[in-house]
Structure formats: structure tokens, C-alpha cells
Amino acid sequence: MTLSIIIVSYQTKKLLRQCLKGVYCHPPNADFEVMVVDNGSDDGTSAMVREEFPQVRLITLSRNLGYAKGSNAAIREARGKYLLFMNADIAVLADSFGRLINFMEQRPDVGLAGPQLLNPDKTIQNSAFRWYNFLTPFCRRTRLKYTKWGRRELKRFLMLEWDHRSECRVNWLMSSCVIVRRQAIEEVGVFDERYFVYLADTDLCRRLWLKHWLVVYTPAAVFIHLHHRQSAEELQLTVVHFKDWLRYIWKWRGQTPPAID
What is the predicted pLDDT for the residue at 240? Predict the structure, then answer.
């Protein structure tokens, strides 16, 4: 099988329904499977998938185990040469999958690639990043972002000097929508389950670079990311982000990230 599309969902029934409709409206131009991991949702997600998309391989977890554990549950059962991880808030465009598969087929040195992500208004969304510095999460989550140093750090981290319209090797890519070569996963390992939501993608890309697999952003493929967060969730997500950040710096303490620029 060429492609396994993996969607980890938690309390996103409506978004997931639209996402799956998009997948089957604009399917890959190769043999594929769709796998949904319901991370302990209580909003009827599993029932919706069973009733409306019986062709989907559904994995139900008893509680929310987080992104890394949910993704790994699917990886263990996936059959594709390539694994494409996407959030339920991704909208698929015509030939989105085909262009990503073609890119990977033409670039055997690439372990992980990410498409260009657009906001609903078709502006480009930042999805490629440089490595974190120690204070980067504070620049993103606190008022430090409004200081001169904070603005400079975010410009570096978000690669704002680059227009995101050209192919580029990058330190890491946001896992909202990425394609990974199974061979690379088998070599470096699956997502580190110490992370709940954040940094699992950063960590995976770091391990790929250490094993000489390229991580590449390609605008040849385009998806829309309906990234939206309720303000009431911000504090909770900030706490999760900082906890995952502490796990990351403890794991990689004393080690310098791979230099690729």
C-alpha cells in the first residue's frame, strides 16, 4: 500500500466529518487507507465514523492519551509506504495528496515533508520552524512576544524572513499535516510518548536530522488548515505546552541541535 492517512481526533466530530469528506472527495492517486484514532472523545466521534465512513479503519482509545500515543497506535497498524499525519481541521484540495506522494517518490533522501498550509482566507500559515531556544515558548505564550527581543526571537523561530513560497530544508515542521517515509520511521523510531501534544513533531524531526534524513517544506502541495482555538482553551494549552517543553529540554539537555541552515 502506498499511503496511510492518519487522523488523531479528540472532541472534533464536526471537523472530522468535513475532513473525511474532503479526503474522499479528493482522494490520493494511489492505493491508500484512512485511519482515525478517536482519543477518548465523548462527542459521538466514533459512532459518526462507523456510520458515515465505514471504510475508515477506526481505532478507539478509552481516554485522551495525547497526540504522540494516539499517532503511535495508528503507526503500529498502518500498512502504507508513506504515513500522512493530518489534523481533523485540515481541508483537502484537489491533488493535495498526489503532489505530496510525487514529491516523496522523487526525493528518496527526504524522511519527512510538509505541504504549504493556507489559512481559510488563503494567506500562508507558518508551519515551518527553526529550533527552539530556551525562552522561545515564553515568547509565544506570554507578553514577552511584545518586547523587542521577543519580536526578534519569533522572527527567527518562525522564519519570517522567508516568504514560504519556495521549497526549503527546515529544522522541523508542524505535524498538522506532514508525510513521513515508513523507512525513516523504522530507523529513528515513532513519536516519543513522553510528549502529550507539543514538541513531539520537533523531537521526531530532530531525530530524523541526526540520522541524515532531510526534513523539507514543499509548496508543491497545498492544504488548508482551519486552525482555530477558543480563548477558554488558551490557558490549558499554555500549561501543556510548557510541560512538554520541559520534557523536551530534559531529554536533549547538553546536546546541540543539528545545524542545517
Answer: 92
Rounded Cα–Cα distance for residues 215 and 209 (Å)? 7
| Sites in the chain below the pLDDT cut of 70 | 228-233, 261
Q: Note whether 87 and 174 are within 8 A (CB).
A: no
* The predicted structure's pLDDT at residue 142: 87
Q: One-letter amino acid identity for 134?
A: F
Give the pLDDT confidence of 40-65 residue by residue, as tens digits. 999 999 999 999 999 999 999 999 99
Could you tell me which residues come within 8 angstroms of residue 147 by beta carbon, excluding any fewer than 6 positions away? Answer: none
Q: What is the distance between the alpha carbons of residues 96 and 90, in angstroms, rounded to a whole number?
A: 11
Instruction: Measure the CA–CA gap between 169 and 159, rounded to whole angstroms.
Output: 12
- Please check whether residue 256 lies inside any domain of the structure: no
Give pLDDT, residue 231: 43
User: Kindly report the CA angle at 227 between 190 and 123, in degrees rounded to 5?
Assistant: 115
Q: Which residue in 175, 172, 242 sits closest to 207, CA to CA? A: 172
> What is the number of domains present in the chain?
1
Q: Is 226 helix (H, G, I), strand (E, B) or coil?
A: coil
Find the CATH number of the domain harbouring 208.
3.90.550.10
Domain enclosing residue 68, as ranges: 3-251
Q: Is residue 80 part of a domain?
A: yes
Report the chain's mean pLDDT, rounded to a whole number.
95
C-alpha cell at 59: 481505532
HSE at residue 50, side-chain half, CA atoms within 13 A, is 7
Confidence at residue 230, expressed as pLDDT on a 0 to 100 scale: 47
Question: CB-based contacts of 36: which residues, under 8 Å, 6+ apart?
Answer: 7, 8, 9, 16, 20, 45, 49, 53, 56, 57, 58, 59
